Amino acid sequence: MSDWFALIALIISIISLYRTLFQQRKNLTIKINECSLFRQAKKFDIFFSFNNLSSLPISINKIVILHNNTILFEDHGITELLYTSKRNDRYNSLLYSNGLPINLAPYTSDKDIIRFDIMELNEPKDYGDFERVIENKNGELKIKICTTRGKSETTIKVEDVEIKNDPSEFYNKYANHKKVSNQNLN
């Protein structure tokens, strides 16, 4: 009789181990919907989709963009108002660039525009170097995403980065995104 209890306990332990290792592991998918370099404003915006497909919450704490293993940008957690439209003396549509962290509950997704300020590059010549990388349309930008449950990586082909002079076209496209700020802007 005690052998049966031991066998049942072993089966329950194996099921528990399976759930812990496979069902609760980090399962974060990252999609880059669009990325744009704005020459005039010297801004680099990326519109991300994050999907947490695991049974535990996950928080995105840091995003780093690299080219040829050289860090170009890091997100510093700054929330910035990107776009407003005004009708009848009222502001109707607000679009924010959300800073980090981005917190995702289990089995949820979120879309965010993350702004990287080119003015934060180390030296003035760096902007010209970055613009030349984008204009040459070769290579990849590696994006490292640090979360509370490990690191994820994805890439953007440089040829997929759009170069625009005026950011309003990008912002008008996402004006109905209606993403509210995850920060207090008072």
Approximately how much helix is present in the residues? 10-25%
Largest sheet: 5 strands, antiparallel
Tally of separate helices:
3
What is the structural class? alpha+beta
Q: Nearest-angstrom radius of gyration?
A: 21 Å
Whole-number average pLDDT? Answer: 76
What's the total number of strands? 11
Q: How much strand?
A: over 45%
Which runs of at least 5 residues are low in confidence (pLDDT < 50)? 181-186
From the spread of the alpha carbons, the general shape counts as elongated
Please give the alpha-carbon distance between the first and last residues.
68 Å
SSE topology string: HEEEEEEEEHEEEH
Report on this structure.
The protein is elongated. A hairpin with a 2-residue loop joins strand 5 and strand 6. The chain is built from three helices and eleven strands; from the N terminus they run H-E-E-E-E-E-E-E-E-H-E-E-E-H. 22% of the residues lie in helices and 45% in strands. The protein has helices at 2-23, 124-136, 168-173, and strands at residues 28-38, 43-52, 58-67, 70-74, 80-87, 90-97, 102-104, 108-117, 140-147, 150-157, 162-164. It starts with a helix and ends in a 13-residue tail after the last helix. Strands 3, 4, 7, 9 and 10 form a five-stranded antiparallel β-sheet that branches. Strands 8-2-1-11 form a four-stranded mixed β-sheet, with helices on one face. A two-stranded antiparallel sheet has the order 5-6. The protein is of the alpha+beta class.
Task: Please render the helix and strand layout as text.
Layout: H1 2-23, E1 28-38, E2 43-52, E3 58-67, E4 70-74, E5 80-87, E6 90-97, E7 102-104, E8 108-117, H2 124-136, E9 140-147, E10 150-157, E11 162-164, H3 168-173
Parallel strand pairs: 1-11
Antiparallel strand pairs: 1-2, 2-8, 3-4, 3-7, 3-9, 5-6, 9-10
